[in-house]
Amino acid sequence: MPNSQSKRYEEWIKLSHSIGRPGWNEINFLIPIIQHLARMDCDLDAQDKIFGGMRERELSGYDPSLFDIYAWNSYIWVLVSYEMVRTLSSYAKEVESPLYKKLSLIQNTKRAFEELRIPLAKHELAERFSGKRGIKVIPWPILMPGGVGWRIGEQRVISRSELSMVLFDLFTEISSS
Fold first, then answer.
1. Which of these, 90, 120, 126, 164, has the minimum number of CB atoms within 10 Å of its CB?
2. Per residue in 3-33, pLDDT tens?
3. Domains identified in the chain, total number
């Protein structure tokens, strides 16, 4: 378990079990995925604190593979998180689904991820967002004060930590229902 983030990790684990309720069998397989994402999130949060406080010129004293691994793991975290939210969205669309009342929140979370996930995974701009916000580039990882992020337009940067908060809030809402 990540030492510096053990409280956050424990919160994620509790939230992961909120989808293991009776009658939610169709999505129980997500529990270990959420838990692994929780571990990654906590590890990446610790790295956010290290790399987020650096300027690019300060990286020259570091083994470049450390930032590469950090950026890669952040990339993987975004892709897997999106797929998990997409699965929840499909499940929640069924009227009989226990998550039907949370469909709007789940879809908003999905959209938050789509803005970054589609360009990252497909190396093309997301149609839904391509005409908005001056999006003209395929995202590339950049360092920012909160850790790794991806520039997706002139003025728009999305960080992994921003998406982590959105995902955590989604599961907090799901657990309270």
1. 90
2. 546 898 999 999 999 888 888 888 999 999 9
3. 1
